[in-house]
Design a protein that fits this description.
The complex is a heterodimer of chains A (about 110) and B (about 110). Chain A is an all-beta fold and about 110 residues long. Chain A has no helices and 11 strands. Chain A has strands spanning about 5, 10-15, 20-25, 30-35, 45-50, 55, 65-70, 75-80, 85-95, 100-105, 110. In chain A, the strands form 2 sheets. In chain A, strands 2, 4, 5, 6, 9, 10 and 11 form a 7-stranded mixed beta sheet that branches. In chain A, strands 1-3-8-7 form a 4-stranded antiparallel beta sheet, with no helix packed on it. In chain A, a hairpin with a 2-residue loop joins β7 and β8. The N and C termini of chain A lie far apart (about 30 Å). Chain B is an all-beta fold and about 110 residues long. Helix content of chain B is about 0%, strand content about 60%. Chain B contains no helices and 11 strands. In chain B, strands 2, 4, 5, 9, 10 and 11 form a 6-stranded mixed beta sheet that branches. Chain B has a 5-stranded antiparallel beta sheet with strand order 1-3-8-7-6, with no helix packed on it. In chain B, β6 (about 55-60) and β7 (about 60-65) form a beta hairpin. Classes of the chains: A mainly beta (about 110), B mainly beta (about 110).
Chain lengths: ~110, ~110
């Protein structure tokens, strides 16, 4: 969905490096989410935010941090990347009025060597 | 732990046949949703069924929900090659503001 964009689309980095993944949306949604997907598995929630000043941990937040700089932007950081953080990362948004229907970005494929 | 468990993990059928995928979950839900993911891409929302609904249709899609058995099924009728994708169920838990995804069913439609 072009309304939710993620940068970069692909990234290869080395163990110990700090990396930031960015998500922007033009849907005007209040709620934003970061998920990771490992091969053959479903999505697992890392962090979510219901507003600019609201940050909540998901089921696998260890090793990650987030920043909600504005309603339209939600960035995910890996402070010190490790190989088992190699995965496909998705950002998603939802509308306050229809909170459970989520709209996904195209994903960022991250490889940590 | 996964709230949703999907069955089968992989399904391969001929074009024109119907495809059925199942999802079971563990705790009470507000609604259940199905998403499609084409290879390496983001998920696309297909259909949402609320906990007080038993069946819902959208085009060639039919979703059923049995809250007594904590299960849902997604039926795709008259399948097409373009239906080849992974399909995920996601549950919105009562009192929670987020979705929990199953591990998905990988559907292959053979021409």
């Amino acid at each position: 969905d072009a309304d939710v964009t993620q940068t970069p689309r692909n990234r290869i980095t080395k163990t110990g490096k700090r990396i930031m993944l960015e998500c922007s949306q033009t849907k005007g949604h209040d709620r934003m989410y970061w998920y990771r997907q490992d091969p053959g598995l479903g999505l697992r929630l890392i962090y979510y935010s219901f507003d600019v000043k609201d940050i909540n941990k998901g089921e696998i937040s260890d090793g990650y941090s987030v920043s909600r700089q504005a309603q339209a932007k939600f960035s995910l950081s890996l402070e010190s990347a490790i190989p088992n953080q190699t995965a496909l990362y998705f950002c998603a948004t939802s509308d306050l009025r229809l909170p459970n229907e989520q709209f996904f970005g195209p994903g960022t494929r991250l490889t940590v060597l | 732990s996964q709230q949703g468990e999907e069955d089968p993990q992989a399904l391969s059928i001929q074009e024109g046949e119907n495809a059925t995928m199942n999802c079971s979950y563990k705790t009470s839900i507000n609604n259940l949703q199905w998403y499609r993911q084409n290879s390496g891409r983001g998920l696309v929302h297909l259909i949402l069924i609320r906990s007080n609904e038993r069946e819902k249709h959208s085009g060639r899609l039919r979703v059923t929900l049995d809250t007594s058995k904590k299960s849902s099924s997604l039926l795709i009728t008259a399948s097409r090659a373009a239906d080849t994708a992974s399909y995920f169920c996601a549950t919105a838990l009562q009192g929670a503001q987020k979705l929990v995804f199953g591990q998905g069913t990988r559907l292959t439609i053979n021409p």
